[in-house]
Amino acid sequence: ASIVVDKLFQLKTEKLETRAIFQGWVKKYIGISLxxxxxxxxxxxxxxxxxxxxxxxxxxxxxxxxxxxxxxIKRVLVHPLREATGYFELIGQxxxxxxxxxxxxxEIGLLMAGLQxxxxxxxxxxxxxxxxxxxxxxxxxxxxxxxxxxxxxxxEQAAAELTRRVIDAQSARLDFAVMEGDSCxxxxxxx
Length: 191
Fold this sequence. Notes:
By secondary structure, the protein is mainly α. It has two helices and no strands. Helices cover about 90% and strands about 0% of the residues. The chain starts with a helix and ends with a helix.
């Protein structure tokens, strides 16, 4: 029985040693697990911080790019279109003397070139109309002068004709009076 007790005691001692070793491994495992968890958490926090930092940088770059695009569009599109609008307003008010600056070779430049061609065409048309009006004005004055001269000559001829007819009428009356006077003498001589 002493062998059995010794065996049991030895088994109990081995069991306790095994348990102690096992508990040491479990503690070591838990320590390693906690360390790994802490390391993973720290890595995740660091990655999250890096992500947030990169996100902020990306947002700042996006804002800067948007501002750059805004100013570029304003310079390339908005300012030239406002300038073209100003030229349209000047032309609409009748000012064809303004010089149209073509600064771009893009569609806005083509618009400005077309506006310049329209302005040149309007200048030519207005010049032609002015020349036509001047020609009509000169022709009207010439016609008026001709009408005045014709009217004056017609009045002179009418006055001369009237004078001739009056003289002819007086002459006829005198001739009639002379003939009447001769007839009276003839009648008086017969009686």
